[in-house]
């Protein structure tokens, strides 16, 4: 997590003093420069999309529950762990399901900075096509 | 919502075909280019910070529940409405409270694209200082 990127993101999307200025941040409840929670969330998404959550049709989030247990800081090194908690088949759309995934992003001290319990839309594999392929 | 910004954000944080490429997006469940949900969330935050949610000490989110009822599209014009649902005073920290705020971002057709039920940390005004000020 680079300090310049924290400030760039905050300038565009979350221009509050504790995301933009070290001195103001030190006087705030964060006690130092902290990334916007939305920057943290966006980085978690990048980690999920680029390998952290291998879903064949992509990660299509319907919504979910976020917590930011502690700030993300300049210099933090972040990684994300995901766990499938539940799979609910759609009643109306037989090729769809909603998967409940808990993704936790941790810093270099293995402290969680972000937890997202997400509802993600997934699709069943097209079984008929696979069968066709197998017989040709 | 500019198409170039949708692609820029997605390139950095959410590089999935339906956020990057019109043709791939048309073939996806989105049926057309859609902004990353995190881009949508970040824009909602900008609208809140720059006037949509006037909190004296800033908007310090502890977490909350997100839904994206429909995609945000290129050309969309977005605005946000907020409603205070609840205020819970802290038991351990007498100058703090957690405010439950529901923010809904709507497009130009007044269709919700984003709903965030957020827990926001707020601080009571320093009453003693105000009294001092009044007597000097």
List keywords for this structure.
homodimer; 136 residues; alpha+beta; Thiol Ester Dehydrase, Chain A; four-stranded antiparallel β-sheet; 4 strands; 33% helix
Give me a quick take on this structure.
The structure is a homodimer of 136-residue chains. The first copy, chain A, has 136 residues and is an alpha+beta fold. Chain A has a single domain (3-135), classed as Hotdog Thioesterase (Thiol Ester Dehydrase, Chain A, Roll).
Describe the structure.
2 copies of one chain form a homodimer. The first copy, chain A, is an alpha+beta fold. Helix content of chain A is 33%, strand content 31%. Chain A has 5 helices and 4 strands. Chain A has a 4-stranded antiparallel sheet with strand order 1-4-3-2. The longest helix of chain A is centred in the N-terminal third of the chain and has 16 residues, at 37-52. Chain A is elongated, with a radius of gyration of 19 Å. The model of chain A has no long low-confidence stretch (mean pLDDT 92). The A-B interface holds A 9, 12-18, 28-29, 36-39, 41-43, 45-46, 49-50, 58-68, 121 and B 9, 12-18, 28-29, 36-39, 41-43, 45-46, 49-50, 58-68, 121.
**Strand arrangement, largest sheet of chain A?**
1-4-3-2
Distance between the termini of chain A: 51 Å
What is the overall shape of chain A? elongated
CATH superfamily of chain A: Hotdog Thioesterase
Under the CATH scheme, which class of chain A? Alpha Beta
Specify the structural class of chain A: alpha+beta
- Describe the main β-sheet of chain A briefly: 4 strands, antiparallel
Task: Tell me what the CATH architecture of chain A is.
Answer: Roll
Which strand-content bin applies to the residues of chain A? Answer: 25-35%
Helix/strand order of chain A: HHHHEEEEH
| SS field, number of helical segments of chain A | 5
**Multimeric status of the protein:** homodimer
Overall number of domains of chain A:
1
Number of strands of chain A: 4
What value does the Rg of chain A take, in angstroms? 19 Å
- Identify the biggest protein-protein contact and residues per side: A-B, 33 and 33 residues
- Looking at CATH, which topology of chain A would you report? Thiol Ester Dehydrase, Chain A
Helix content of chain A: 25-40%
